[in-house]
Amino acid sequence: MRWRERVRMVAFGVVAIGSNVVGADDSALFDALVKKGVLSQKEADTIQSSVKDQALQSSNSYQGLVNKIQVGSWIKELNLSGDLRIRNYYTSQQQQLPAPPNVHNYDANIQRDRWRFRLRLNADFLLEDGWFGGVQLSTSDNRDSATQNATFTGGYDNYNIYISR
């Protein structure tokens, strides 16, 4: 394989692989290759059009894939959603009782610092003949929002998952 053909193949490969990254700056690369005599203007135009066609085909195939995902013929719609909430809970309280006798390093302040989280995953579905339903998985079995948060204890605990809806 001659040197010029190798450079052309490398240029085509770089443009084809990096077409999503390079974007609008690929014309400057082709202009530089044409000025150096590595590519003719016709070859540069051919490579640019094929790269644009490939990018268009890949985006169209992705859209087709998203629209064609089906769970079953009996499910018309499936909506997946969820949320994750993370917060820091800090309290500081003053002891009401006096210090016990013979304790020299008694601290009257009680400080509590902990991370709390809540995770909910939802699946709502529409079936044939107007039937619908939904399921929610969460980190708490209690619907009271004040007690739905779980305390993060360093990642070594088994956190329960509940069906809450």
Textual characterization of the structure:
This protein is an alpha+beta fold and 165 residues long. It folds into two domains: 3-67, no CATH class; 75-163, no CATH class. Helix content is 35%, strand content 31%. It is built from four helices and five strands; from the N terminus they run ααααβββββ. Strands 1, 2, 3, 4 and 5 form a five-stranded antiparallel beta sheet that branches. β2 and β3 (132-138) form a beta hairpin. α3 (26-36) runs antiparallel to α4. The mean pLDDT is 75.
Labels describing this entry:
elongated, alpha+beta, 165 residues, five-stranded antiparallel β-sheet, single chain
Question: Quick summary of this structure?
Answer:
By secondary structure, the protein is α+β, with helices and mostly antiparallel strands. It contains 4 helices and 5 strands; from the N terminus they run H-H-H-H-E-E-E-E-E. It has 2 domains: 65 residues, no CATH class; 89 residues, no CATH class.
